[in-house]
Write a structure and sequence with these properties.
By secondary structure, the protein is of the alpha/beta class. Strands 3-2-1-4-5-6-7 form a 7-stranded mixed beta sheet, sandwiched between helices. The protein has a domain of 133 residues: Rossmann fold, CATH 3.40.50. Helix content is 37%, strand content 15%.
């Protein structure tokens, strides 16, 4: 089974992440099949990968390009059996995934700090491991036909800097280093 994990940009609650990802571990064997985790690069990727490696889960990492991030995310969702979303409902990107899953009937679990969890948009009173057992793999690829009306936020991780300015800064730094080296060097004085 394929699981897509989505977190808010500002999500910091490692305890909730660890608790919920523990249920996917093959050593606990709550699910009948092996789970592959699809993970998008965010600020939390390093911490999530550590947790997933501790639970011996397979990880597939994805990077969303700025120009086609919605299309790439939809391609990932076509091969997803269920989503685990960790959010405080402040990010447009997690809202895009929640709405896409809801419109296309992809099972999703939404975890927040205020409520235990939501299953397909509704507060769920059942135990999480019971709901995991109800999941069944579906034939891939899923046809994504209904899309939400809004677009993803485009955030570039690399700031846009002028290349000529970078080259000039490097030259300036090298010249400073060269002059410091010359000033500190030992000079022989002939009598």
């Amino acid at each position: 089974m394929n699981c897509l994990i989505i977190t808010d940009e500002n999500w910091k609650n490692i305890a909730i992440l660890s608790k919920r990802l523990n249920y996917l571990s093959p050593t606990l064997n709550f699910l009948k099949t092996e789970v592959r985790i699809n993970l998008l690069y965010t600020k939390m990727t390093k911490e999530i990968v550590k947790i997933l490696e501790n639970y011996e889960l397979n990880i597939i990492r994805h990077c969303l390009p700025n120009n086609n991030s919605a299309n790439k995310l939809i391609d990932i969702l076509k091969y997803t059996d269920f989503c685990m979303i960790f959010t405080d409902f402040k990010s447009k990107n997690t809202k895009f995934v929640i709405d896409t899953c809801t419109l296309n009937k992809i099972p999703n679990f939404i975890f927040t700090e205020s409520v235990d969890y939501y299953y397909n948009g509704e507060i769920c009173k059942n135990k999480f491991k019971k709901m995991l057992n109800l999941l069944t793999p579906v034939k891939k690829p899923i046809e994504i036909v209904n899309l939400p009306k809004f677009q993803l936020e485009e955030k570039s991780l690399i700031p846009k800097i002028n290349k000529i300015q970078i080259i000039e800064n490097l030259r300036h730094c090298y010249n400073l280093l060269k002059t410091k080296k010359q000033n500190r060097s030992i000079k022989i004085i002939d009598p």
